[in-house]
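Board notes (copied after class):
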Amino acid sequence: MPISVRYHFTQRFTVSAQEAFDWCTDFDSQDHMLMGDKTAERKIIHLANGAVILQDSFNNVAETIEKQKLVHIYPDQYTWTSTHLTGPNKHSQFLYQITPQDKDVSVITFTALHLEYDENIDTKLLAERLCKEDAYAWKLLAAAMAKDKKHIGAYY
């Protein structure tokens, strides 16, 4: 039986809540390039208005890892969920909520319910490691988002 590992963090964005939400939920087959993973591939399947499946594959030294995630998007709340349907994090769920701070500043709150299938792992250490890794990834995304805004603003 899997073990529940919960963690959360926040990340500040230097864009409005609407801009941050639009940027974060504009899924693209090249999204993994932002994270520096040139071997990753993404396929996007639009199920219905506000629901997509993201099929991701990553190559590492030993194997190809495939993940399929169901994403539900709630634009009126600047919120979305991502539920892993397959892969090593199967049935894990992640909640993203963007909150406006002022006109050009917002904050994302990331909440994770990671299901771990290795029952011999120290869940406290795992939660700390996963939180640190995910928070670092969102720092990179915040920087990319700020860079995109400056780039877009140069044309207006």
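Comment from the instructor: The beta strands are 3-13, 41-48, 51-59, 64-74, 79-84, 93-102, 105-116. The longest strand covers residues 105-116.
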